[in-house]
Amino acid sequence: MTLNVQFLTTPLEQETRITLAAAYRLLAQRQMDDLTYTHLSARVPGADAYFIYPFGMLFEEVTASSLLKVSLEGEILEGEEFQYNQTGYVIHGSIYQKRPDINAVFHLHTTAGVAVSAMACGLLPLSQFSLHFYNRLAYHGYDSLALDYKRQGDQLAQDLGTHKAMILRNHGTLTCGETVAEAFLYMHFLEQSCRVQCAAMASGQDLTLPPPAVCEKAAQDLRNFEPTFGERDWTALMRQLERTDKGYQE
Asked: I want to staple 170 with a disulfide (CB 3.0 to 4.6 A). Which of 85, 142, 166, 175 is the partner?
Protein backbone atom coordinates (compact mmCIF):
# COMPACT_ATOMS: atom_id res chain seq x y z
CA MET A 1 0.00 0.00 0.00
CA THR A 2 1.39 3.42 -0.96
CA LEU A 3 0.43 6.98 -0.20
CA ASN A 4 0.82 10.00 -2.41
CA VAL A 5 1.94 12.29 0.41
CA GLN A 6 5.06 14.36 -0.15
CA PHE A 7 6.02 14.81 3.50
CA LEU A 8 6.26 11.06 4.17
CA THR A 9 9.97 10.43 4.41
CA THR A 10 10.38 6.77 5.34
CA PRO A 11 8.56 3.48 4.74
CA LEU A 12 8.29 3.03 8.52
CA GLU A 13 6.46 6.34 8.88
CA GLN A 14 4.11 5.37 6.08
CA GLU A 15 3.40 2.01 7.68
CA THR A 16 2.78 3.65 11.05
CA ARG A 17 0.34 6.13 9.53
CA ILE A 18 -1.61 3.37 7.81
CA THR A 19 -1.76 1.23 10.94
CA LEU A 20 -2.92 4.09 13.16
CA ALA A 21 -5.56 5.20 10.66
CA ALA A 22 -6.84 1.63 10.59
CA ALA A 23 -7.21 1.68 14.39
CA TYR A 24 -9.34 4.85 14.18
CA ARG A 25 -11.62 3.24 11.57
CA LEU A 26 -11.94 -0.01 13.51
CA LEU A 27 -12.98 1.79 16.70
CA ALA A 28 -15.47 3.85 14.70
CA GLN A 29 -17.00 0.64 13.36
CA ARG A 30 -17.39 -0.54 16.96
CA GLN A 31 -18.99 2.77 18.00
CA MET A 32 -16.28 3.38 20.57
CA ASP A 33 -15.62 6.98 19.45
CA ASP A 34 -17.08 10.18 20.92
CA LEU A 35 -17.84 12.73 18.19
CA THR A 36 -14.56 14.62 17.66
CA TYR A 37 -13.29 13.93 21.18
CA THR A 38 -10.87 11.22 22.36
CA HIS A 39 -7.78 10.27 20.43
CA LEU A 40 -5.29 7.61 19.43
CA SER A 41 -1.64 8.16 18.67
CA ALA A 42 1.47 6.31 17.53
CA ARG A 43 5.08 7.33 18.00
CA VAL A 44 6.92 8.37 14.84
CA PRO A 45 9.64 5.75 14.34
CA GLY A 46 13.02 7.08 15.37
CA ALA A 47 11.78 10.58 16.25
CA ASP A 48 10.65 12.59 19.28
CA ALA A 49 7.18 13.01 17.80
CA TYR A 50 3.94 11.12 17.28
CA PHE A 51 1.05 10.83 14.84
CA ILE A 52 -2.47 11.75 15.95
CA TYR A 53 -5.71 12.68 14.19
CA PRO A 54 -6.53 16.33 13.46
CA PHE A 55 -8.86 17.64 16.19
CA GLY A 56 -12.22 18.15 14.51
CA MET A 57 -12.39 14.92 12.52
CA LEU A 58 -14.57 11.92 13.27
CA PHE A 59 -12.79 8.61 13.74
CA GLU A 60 -14.53 7.29 10.62
CA GLU A 61 -12.98 10.10 8.55
CA VAL A 62 -9.36 9.56 9.54
CA THR A 63 -6.95 8.54 6.79
CA ALA A 64 -3.24 7.85 6.82
CA SER A 65 -2.45 11.12 5.04
CA SER A 66 -4.68 13.24 7.29
CA LEU A 67 -2.78 12.37 10.47
CA LEU A 68 -0.79 15.14 12.14
CA LYS A 69 2.81 14.84 13.21
CA VAL A 70 3.23 16.47 16.64
CA SER A 71 6.33 16.95 18.79
CA LEU A 72 6.36 15.60 22.36
CA GLU A 73 5.98 19.22 23.51
CA GLY A 74 2.82 19.72 21.45
CA GLU A 75 4.19 21.58 18.41
CA ILE A 76 2.42 20.75 15.14
CA LEU A 77 5.19 19.62 12.81
CA GLU A 78 3.04 18.49 9.86
CA GLY A 79 -0.63 18.86 9.00
CA GLU A 80 -3.54 21.09 10.01
CA GLU A 81 -6.48 20.79 12.40
CA PHE A 82 -9.72 22.64 13.14
CA GLN A 83 -8.64 23.62 16.67
CA TYR A 84 -5.44 23.12 18.65
CA ASN A 85 -5.90 19.97 20.76
CA GLN A 86 -4.21 21.01 24.00
CA THR A 87 -5.67 18.25 26.16
CA GLY A 88 -4.75 15.55 23.66
CA TYR A 89 -1.18 16.74 23.35
CA VAL A 90 -0.72 16.97 27.12
CA ILE A 91 -1.93 13.39 27.55
CA HIS A 92 -0.02 11.76 24.70
CA GLY A 93 3.13 13.85 24.83
CA SER A 94 3.54 13.38 28.58
CA ILE A 95 3.30 9.60 28.31
CA TYR A 96 5.74 9.35 25.40
CA GLN A 97 8.24 11.54 27.24
CA LYS A 98 8.19 9.32 30.33
CA ARG A 99 7.76 5.91 28.65
CA PRO A 100 10.29 5.22 25.87
CA ASP A 101 8.96 1.65 25.71
CA ILE A 102 5.53 2.89 24.58
CA ASN A 103 4.82 3.43 20.87
CA ALA A 104 1.02 3.78 20.89
CA VAL A 105 -1.49 5.45 23.24
CA PHE A 106 -5.30 5.13 23.05
CA HIS A 107 -7.73 7.27 25.06
CA LEU A 108 -11.52 6.73 24.91
CA HIS A 109 -14.75 7.94 26.56
CA THR A 110 -17.05 4.95 26.10
CA THR A 111 -20.20 4.72 28.23
CA ALA A 112 -19.04 1.57 30.01
CA GLY A 113 -15.52 2.91 30.54
CA VAL A 114 -16.73 6.20 32.00
CA ALA A 115 -19.26 4.35 34.18
CA VAL A 116 -16.58 2.16 35.75
CA SER A 117 -14.28 5.17 36.10
CA ALA A 118 -16.90 6.66 38.42
CA MET A 119 -17.24 3.53 40.58
CA ALA A 120 -15.36 3.69 43.88
CA CYS A 121 -14.59 -0.03 43.57
CA GLY A 122 -12.77 0.49 40.27
CA LEU A 123 -12.45 -2.44 37.90
CA LEU A 124 -13.35 -5.72 39.61
CA PRO A 125 -11.97 -9.17 38.64
CA LEU A 126 -15.38 -10.31 37.47
CA SER A 127 -14.46 -11.81 34.12
CA GLN A 128 -11.56 -13.26 32.22
CA PHE A 129 -11.50 -9.95 30.32
CA SER A 130 -10.74 -8.06 33.52
CA LEU A 131 -8.11 -10.54 34.71
CA HIS A 132 -5.79 -9.13 32.05
CA PHE A 133 -5.57 -6.11 34.35
CA TYR A 134 -5.45 -7.76 37.77
CA ASN A 135 -2.88 -5.78 39.79
CA ARG A 136 -1.83 -4.30 36.46
CA LEU A 137 -4.13 -1.30 36.13
CA ALA A 138 -3.37 2.31 37.05
CA TYR A 139 -5.81 4.99 38.22
CA HIS A 140 -5.63 8.74 37.67
CA GLY A 141 -7.79 11.15 39.67
CA TYR A 142 -9.94 13.64 37.79
CA ASP A 143 -8.40 17.12 37.58
CA SER A 144 -10.53 18.96 35.01
CA LEU A 145 -9.23 19.24 31.43
CA ALA A 146 -5.59 18.26 30.95
CA LEU A 147 -4.13 21.61 29.93
CA ASP A 148 -0.90 21.83 31.94
CA TYR A 149 2.08 19.76 30.78
CA LYS A 150 4.12 20.24 33.93
CA ARG A 151 1.50 19.59 36.60
CA GLN A 152 -1.26 17.53 35.00
CA GLY A 153 0.83 15.81 32.34
CA ASP A 154 3.56 14.77 34.76
CA GLN A 155 1.00 13.50 37.26
CA LEU A 156 -0.79 11.46 34.61
CA ALA A 157 2.46 9.83 33.46
CA GLN A 158 3.47 9.23 37.07
CA ASP A 159 0.14 7.57 37.85
CA LEU A 160 0.46 5.34 34.79
CA GLY A 161 3.82 4.14 36.08
CA THR A 162 4.96 0.98 34.35
CA HIS A 163 1.43 -0.18 33.47
CA LYS A 164 -0.12 -0.33 30.01
CA ALA A 165 -3.70 0.44 31.02
CA MET A 166 -5.25 3.13 33.17
CA ILE A 167 -8.68 4.31 34.28
CA LEU A 168 -9.03 8.07 34.34
CA ARG A 169 -11.50 8.71 37.15
CA ASN A 170 -14.80 10.28 36.04
CA HIS A 171 -13.34 10.58 32.56
CA GLY A 172 -12.57 7.42 30.61
CA THR A 173 -9.95 4.81 29.79
CA LEU A 174 -6.41 4.75 28.43
CA THR A 175 -4.24 1.95 27.09
CA CYS A 176 -0.69 1.82 25.76
CA GLY A 177 1.42 -0.62 23.83
CA GLU A 178 4.74 -1.26 22.23
CA THR A 179 2.67 -1.51 19.05
CA VAL A 180 -0.69 -0.19 17.84
CA ALA A 181 -1.94 -3.78 17.89
CA GLU A 182 -1.06 -4.17 21.57
CA ALA A 183 -2.73 -0.90 22.57
CA PHE A 184 -5.81 -1.88 20.53
CA LEU A 185 -6.17 -5.31 22.14
CA TYR A 186 -5.73 -3.91 25.65
CA MET A 187 -8.45 -1.35 24.88
CA HIS A 188 -10.71 -4.12 23.57
CA PHE A 189 -10.26 -6.15 26.76
CA LEU A 190 -10.64 -3.09 28.99
CA GLU A 191 -13.86 -2.09 27.24
CA GLN A 192 -15.22 -5.64 27.49
CA SER A 193 -14.28 -5.71 31.19
CA CYS A 194 -16.21 -2.50 31.82
CA ARG A 195 -19.27 -3.67 29.86
CA VAL A 196 -19.40 -6.96 31.77
CA GLN A 197 -19.03 -5.17 35.10
CA CYS A 198 -21.83 -2.72 34.32
CA ALA A 199 -24.13 -5.55 33.20
CA ALA A 200 -23.32 -7.76 36.18
CA MET A 201 -23.80 -4.98 38.74
CA ALA A 202 -27.04 -3.88 37.09
CA SER A 203 -28.46 -7.40 37.45
CA GLY A 204 -28.81 -6.97 41.20
CA GLN A 205 -27.48 -10.48 41.78
CA ASP A 206 -24.74 -11.35 44.24
CA LEU A 207 -21.41 -11.41 42.43
CA THR A 208 -18.64 -13.99 42.73
CA LEU A 209 -14.94 -13.19 42.46
CA PRO A 210 -12.15 -15.73 41.91
CA PRO A 211 -9.65 -16.09 44.78
CA PRO A 212 -6.69 -13.68 44.58
CA ALA A 213 -4.22 -16.48 43.84
CA VAL A 214 -6.33 -17.63 40.90
CA CYS A 215 -6.66 -14.07 39.64
CA GLU A 216 -2.91 -13.58 39.70
CA LYS A 217 -2.28 -16.93 37.98
CA ALA A 218 -4.81 -16.03 35.28
CA ALA A 219 -3.21 -12.61 34.75
CA GLN A 220 0.18 -14.23 34.23
CA ASP A 221 -1.23 -16.92 31.95
CA LEU A 222 -3.09 -14.36 29.85
CA ARG A 223 0.05 -12.25 29.44
CA ASN A 224 2.13 -15.28 28.47
CA PHE A 225 -0.45 -16.89 26.18
CA GLU A 226 0.62 -14.85 23.14
CA PRO A 227 4.31 -14.12 22.39
CA THR A 228 3.35 -11.02 20.40
CA PHE A 229 0.32 -9.69 22.23
CA GLY A 230 -2.34 -8.44 19.83
CA GLU A 231 -0.73 -9.52 16.57
CA ARG A 232 -3.08 -12.41 15.80
CA ASP A 233 -6.24 -10.41 16.43
CA TRP A 234 -4.87 -7.34 14.66
CA THR A 235 -4.10 -9.39 11.55
CA ALA A 236 -7.69 -10.67 11.56
CA LEU A 237 -9.06 -7.16 12.07
CA MET A 238 -7.04 -5.87 9.14
CA ARG A 239 -8.59 -8.55 6.97
CA GLN A 240 -12.00 -7.33 8.10
CA LEU A 241 -11.11 -3.73 7.32
CA GLU A 242 -9.91 -4.70 3.86
CA ARG A 243 -13.38 -6.14 3.22
CA THR A 244 -15.39 -3.28 4.71
CA ASP A 245 -13.45 0.01 4.54
CA LYS A 246 -10.25 0.62 2.58
CA GLY A 247 -10.47 4.39 2.88
CA TYR A 248 -8.03 4.53 5.81
CA GLN A 249 -5.15 3.81 3.42
CA GLU A 250 -5.52 7.11 1.56
From this structure: 142
